[in-house]
Design a protein that fits this description.
Blueprint lengths: L5 E8 L5 E7 L4 H11 L7 E5 L2 E2 L6 H4 L6 E6 L3 E8 L4 E7 L5 H10 L7 E5 L2 E2 L6 H4 L6 E6 L3 H11 L1
Length: 168
């Protein structure tokens, strides 16, 4: 679709059920939508974060550049409610995600595995040397802005045993 066509985007605020619908051109900067949303709810622009697919949206980008589709939902949140987490794999894959402190880590775990084509059941996500559970939140684990989560391949007991037996 060409970038001059229109798109309908929904914006949902943290913890709210209602969504606000915006119709805009695909080549218009997201700043226009962000300003309009902040004005509508008397929010300060610099205190509000807009996220799509757990990634912070740059005001300078357009829906076309973000690859937004008609009906996609953008999350709005207080900037203080969001943190950026770096996820690094032992294979060198690295990504950064913005997540609300109260959202389950499964959101970024699934996205990381999908992006790098990893089997979710074949990897473990570690924070501070401890295996994390998908339902745990950054708030519960004490994860701060800029912290890292490491992704490690699981080693089965049989795999370790056979490895040891080979060299004994």
């Amino acid at each position: 679709m060409e970038p001059t066509s229109h798109i309908t985007v929904l914006v949902k605020y943290t913890g709210e059920i209602n969504q606000v619908c915006f119709k805009m051109k695909r080549n218009t900067s997201m700043k226009k939508l962000m300003n309009s949303y902040c004005d509508r709810y008397s929010l300060h622009f610099n205190s509000t974060a807009f996220l799509f697919d757990s990634r912070l949206i740059s005001p300078n980008l357009s829906p076309f550049q973000l690859n937004l589709k008609d009906g996609d939902v953008i999350d709005a949140a207080f900037h203080e409610d969001c943190i950026e987490i770096k996820v690094k794999g032992q294979n060198g894959f690295e990504a950064s995600y913005v997540i609300r402190r109260t959202d389950p880590l499964r959101n970024i775990m699934d996205k990381y595995c999908l992006h790098y084509r990893l089997n979710f059941d074949a990897v473990g996500f570690l924070f501070d040397g401890r295996l994390t559970k998908p339902e745990e939140t950054p708030y519960k684990l004490g994860i701060q802005n800029g912290d890292e989560i490491l992704v490690m391949l699981h080693m089965s007991a049989c795999g370790v045993l056979s490895f040891r037996m080979k060299f004994d």
